[in-house]
Design goal:
Layout: E1 2-6, H1 11-21, E2 28-31, E3 42-47, E4 51-57, E5 62-68, H2 74-90, H3 104-115, H4 117-126, H5 132-149, E6 156-163, E7 165-166, E8 178-179, H6 180-207, E9 211-219, H7 227-240, E10 248-252, H8 261-269, E11 274-280, H9 284-289, H10 296-309, E12 314-320, H11 327-340, E13 344-349, H12 357-360, H13 367-386, E14 390-395, E15 406-410, H14 417-424, E16 428-432, E17 437-441, E18 448-452, H15 457-462, H16 464-470, H17 472-481
Length: 482
């Protein structure tokens, strides 16, 4: 789909909105200079002295909509016009309306602060065309987030540690992680260098008198490491950082087939108090479809093993819209997870990432799949709300099935502060390991600077000195803004 723009500069916004309605198309945005041959299918948008217009032509369908040019938000008015044209063409009305960004909750919070809750919800519904269902979800999530955000202070930070190895690569995944089978020789030298980076990062944090709020070890699958390797990693964190004020320490134990009693003990003894066991589904056929090498029963057994080991906060991740999943089997999965009674449950919607296996295989996002995923999320809200879980963080991604959302649900007192801090970009996050990104935040402003580590373990291992050199940027940032 080619998108032509004339006499305006809303390229990024128009591209994102077009992708909502045409998720399988390659979207190319071009400035129209006059006289070009526009070959169908195309969208043409223009702003002139007295009006704005949008036209969609696919060779048969040909429709133009216009609106008078008035005082006010020109960008919002044009996107509303295009939205109307797209809904007429596709018969599809996205529940998040004009919103295409990752963080709708940040917007809801800003609107509430500026105009109050009632007017903020009205703006979502009437100006941004968000459905009543998603407006209410955003409002409730924002309320639950706010009390967590208030915990962060000027000198607060979180720590992220990356373990970029997995037992196998899931078909929906686009993270930079390698199967342990192929990268086993990289693990030991990687861990040795990671410990050095952790110590160096701790020295910098201490020199700046930063206060550690949360720790998150993710990846990848950290529990691909052995119990002995996990102990080395956790001991390095515990001995390097002041954890006396740390509110939460999570280890992502995502793949049930990597969880053992010895690893769980090493995690608990290392100071972590929260893990995530992520079956994604309890449907064995769907597990096979997405490249998982474990069964639903193994996921259940892993959860019970974590309870036996003494883990007091277990999160479980699910994905709505997986290939081969149905409304009935998703409901069965959620019911089965709820019977285990985890403290928190995160329900994602399948996102068709460009570098995922599903996308490489030619998988497309179909309208019916979006409807099915939407019904899955409706059941999720109904079920979890009835059991006392509350939505406490929410984010969205591009090319999500049904243009929906990911939501973290938790029982009272079991919300993940790290998830909220990271998604809201509340404070600095110091990252260690391959693929980790240090995000430096000036408190009370929107200013954010990033320092990137090399993505792949082999790069990390061979160019480690460059990573340590980049750490100087942390001190330079705080010297500049604090």
């Amino acid at each position: 789909m080619e998108v032509y723009i004339f006499n305006h500069d809303y390229l990024y916004e128009l591209e994102n909105l077009t992708r909502v309605f045409f998720p399988n198309d390659k979207i190319t945005v071009l400035k129209y200079m006059g006289g070009e041959d526009m070959k169908p299918p195309f969208v043409y948008t223009a702003i002139t002295e007295d009006k704005m217009e949008a036209r969609l032509f696919d060779g048969e369908f040909d429709k133009t909509v216009t609106a008078p040019l008035t005082d006010g938000d020109e960008e919002l008015a044009l996107m509303t016009l295009v939205f109307d044209l797209f809904t007429q063409y596709t018969g599809y009305v996205p529940k998040w309306g004009l919103l295409t960004g990752v963080r709708p909750i940040k917007l809801m919070r800003r609107l509430k602060d500026d105009m109050g809750e009632g007017e903020a919800k009205k703006y979502f519904r009437e100006k941004l065309l968000v459905s009543e269902e998603k407006t209410d979800l955003a409002c409730e999530t924002e309320k639950n987030e706010r009390k967590i955000l208030d915990l962060s202070q000027r000198n607060s930070f979180s720590l992220y540690i990356s373990i970029p190895f997995c037992p196998s690569r899931c078909s929906y995944c686009s993270f930079v992680s390698q199967s342990v089978e192929k990268a086993k020789h990289l693990v030991e030298p990687y861990l040795e260098l990671l410990v050095k980076e952790i110590k160096k990062t701790a020295e910098i944090a201490e020199s700046l008198k930063l206060n550690l709020e949360t720790v998150y070890i993710g990846g990848g699958t950290p529990t691909t490491l052995s119990a002995e390797q996990l102990k080395i990693l956790l001991d390095a964190i515990k001995s390097s950082f002041d954890l006396s004020n740390c509110r939460e320490f999570t280890v992502e134990a995502g793949r049930p087939d990597t969880i053992t009693f010895d690893k769980l003990k090493a995690i608990l003894e290392g100071g972590a108090d929260r893990i995530s066991v992520n079956p994604q589904t309890l449907n064995d056929n769907v597990l096979e479809n997405i490249g998982r090498r474990h069964t639903a029963q193994q996921a259940i057994d892993a959860f019970k093993l974590a309870r036996q080991a003494g883990v007091g906060h277990i999160n479980m991740d699910l994905i709505a819209g997986l290939p081969g999943d149905t409304i009935e089997s998703f409901r069965s999965t959620l019911d089965g997870i709820c019977e285990l009674d985890p403290e928190s449950i995160t329900v994602h919607t399948l996102s068709m990432k460009k570098s995922s296996g599903l996308t490489a295989e030619g998988k497309q996002i179909l309208k019916q799949e979006g409807i099915t995923a939407s019904l899955m999320l409706e059941y999720t809200k109904e079920k979890l709300s009835a059991l006392g879980y509350k939505p406490y963080y929410l984010y969205r991604q591009s090319r999500m099935v049904g243009n929906l959302e990911n939501v973290g649900w938790a029982k009272e007192g079991f919300e993940s502060s790290y998830n909220v801090f990271v998604m809201d970009e509340t404070h600095t996050v110091l990252g260690c390991g391959a693929g980790a990104v240090t995000k430096l935040k000036e408190f009370g402003t929107d200013r954010l600077e990033r320092i990137f580590n090399f993505k792949y373990p082999y790069e990390y291992n061979t160019r480690f000195d460059e990573i340590i050199e980049r750490k100087k940027g942390i001190t330079e940032f705080y010297a500049k803004y604090f």
